[in-house]
Design goal:
structural constituent of nuclear pore, transport, 3 helices, Nucleoporin_Nup133/Nup155_N, 37% strand, 4-stranded antiparallel beta sheet, mainly beta, 186 residues
Amino acid sequence: MVTNDTQVQNVVGTKEGRIFLAGHDSLFEVLYQTGNWFRGPKCEKQNLSKNYLSSFIPAISFLSNVEEIRLISVDDTRHYLYTLGDKGTIEVYDLGADGLKLERKKSSSLLDIRREIRSTCGVEDEFLAGIVAINAIPSTRSQYVCLEAVTTKGMRIYFTVYPNLVPNYPIEQQDARASTLLKFMV
């Protein structure tokens, strides 16, 4: 598969067989098909982050503030995909109830996360210097907490994608879809 000089940072697969790559400033999906007697197997990568126009006019990419995607984490129980950029931005993608779609739902920069934590917890800035890891939390471990982020100082930040901070239990995972990214607990 041609990567066009894109350095792949992270590779993740889903239970449904989808393969996602983090490369430079883009999220890619590997599309593969088995062959038939007339054609052999086919494999290609699709850029899910950039729009159609920016692939033809690279200058548009330079005008935007690009952030390299470092990590991808997938929650196969809820069908969410999370990315972490090198500047601390966390993005949430909804893979749909069946795990076969992809829709970007929310993006929270490190600045937004710091602001939200400072307003509720009073944590000092040195503990929020940067985010180095993200881990999806499956619904089998928590019905409400969906993502754990780890800072450079080892502090854990827990997030939910549900809009109500006080959940109505039990949450029907197949019906509840991501609509936000809120800090739940530090």
